[in-house]
Structures are given as structure tokens and as C-alpha cells.
Amino acid sequence: MTPTDSSLELQKFLHEKIPLSRAMGVQVVAVNDTELTLCAPLEPNHNHLGTAFGGSLSALATLAGYTFLWIALGDRDAHIVIRDSTISYQKPVRGELRATCLAPDPKKLAKFLKIFHQKGKSRIKLTVLIEENGETAVTLTGTYVALR
Amino acid sequence: MTPTDSSLELQKFLHEKIPLSRAMGVQVVAVNDTELTLCAPLEPNHNHLGTAFGGSLSALATLAGYTFLWIALGDRDAHIVIRDSTISYQKPVRGELRATCLAPDPKKLAKFLKIFHQKGKSRIKLTVLIEENGETAVTLTGTYVALR
């Protein structure tokens, strides 16, 4: 997918606000209603085995959740934090790291947004997949909180 | 605590093998029988709120577990991977990031080492705490696997 102006602008926002995303070489490669995908090259993110470092995988997956919520809220000033996460590392990642935050059930997303706008604080559970060659390598499930 | 020669050598090993640890500014600050502590400055690890980025916290905590096992195994060629982790972010970290991997119960550690030496593959659950001003900010519980 060709990066659009909005994905390049979003990438610039991430690099400015979260310097580790720049050090990791994070790119925003897909933004649409059903998912958000971030990529990062293996080179700055490899481990002692030449595969992707678990810490880079967890950082990229965590960031995909944040980024999805910035887009969903349409509010870059919203304070988004992660409350907890569970990560399962099923397979090593041998090439580019590619993390996709799946859109939650539309009813759950609508409820999250409604509560955020009413109370200024809302939480939602998100799932992020890191896939390679069509197979899931890493799954993150995280609870994110948005605050105004 | 003053870094010892061995902690500086270990830090060099981490920076060479896992480039993200260099980008994060990871330092090995305490290595002893009961715990292993890694630090990283806030500057390259902050988020959009000026506190520590969740991805940096998870990466540093994950790395503390790896490093503890390299020391426990006394074998830098051992292939250590993380199988799963659960991370709880209880408080924001406003200054230096400081992750301590606690030594597991001595009987569990001995069993892990015995199985590794017998079968060339062994797993263990580790707990890593990120603390600031005497309070726990982040807790990671992870299952690590060592392979020969």
C-alpha cells in the first residue's frame, strides 16, 4: 500500500512525540476504517539471534494501539495510555516487523467514543497482530485508556 | 551503585547484539545474585505526554529478563527467547526508567538450569519491576525459554 499524505503526517507526529519510534524506523503503512498498520525494518530492531527483538515487537504493537486510538478519537491532544497488555510470541519474525491493530467491534468502539465525549475518560481493549508470510507471529491484547 | 567492569562488558554485549538497547541508552547498573537492574534515560524513551513510552517500558523490562538469564546460564551463546508476557502499567514513569528482574525462587532456578543442561531446552517464569521513588510503576511477568 502506498503511504498517503495522512499516513506520512501521522508518521511525522509519532516520530516527533515518541522518539523511540524514529529510532525504530516506524512507518505508517495503512490507515483505514478496519485497521491500522505500522512497519519497522529489521535492522534497528534485531536481537542476538538476528530475528526481531521481543522488546521491539512489544513496542511496535503497543504503538499500533495508541495510533489506532488517535485516529479513532480524531484528537491528537487526547491523553492515551496503556493500562495492561498480554503478549504472546508464537513465531520469530525474520524480516520487516509489521503490526496491525484490528478495529474493535463497532458497537464497542461507539461506546468507547461516547463515554470519552461524555465523561472525558474511557477505556477499550484492542488486539494487535504482528504477521509475517501470512502467519501470526505475535498477538498483543491491551487495555488502553483515553483521557481528556 | 557504580557499574563494575562486568556490568560495562555486559552493557557492551547488549548494545552490540540488540541495537535498540543502544538507541534507548540502556545501562546495566546492578548485577548480583538476587537481581539484575537495567536503566535508561527518559530523553530517548519519552512519549507524547513527556512520561516514559509504554513501548520503551515493555522493551526495557523484556530485556531485563533476557539479561538475567544470560547471567544465570553463564552462556552468551544460549538462545533465549520470550514466549509470553503480561504487563501491568500502574503509574506513569516521569524520570529515568529502571527495570529490575527479580531472581526466581532458588529451587525453580536450579530446576530450570538442570533441565537446560540435560535437555538443551528449558523455560522459566520471571518477574520484572519498574520502580520510581520506591513505588512500582510497571510489572512484567514473562515466560522465557532457553535453547542450546
TrEMBL record, chains A, B:
Thioesterase putative domain boundaries: 9-147
The keyword Secreted is assigned to this record: no
SUPFAM superfamilies, per the entry: Thioesterase/thiol ester dehydrase-isomerase
Lineage top rank: taxon: Bacteria
Bilayer-crossing regions: 52-73
InterPro entries: HotDog_dom_sf, YiiD_C
Sorted UniProt keywords: Membrane, Transmembrane, Transmembrane helix
Pfam families (UniProt xref): YiiD_C
Stored NCBIfam families: yiiD_Cterm
Official protein name in the record: Thioesterase domain-containing protein
Annotated source species: Luteolibacter pohnpeiensis
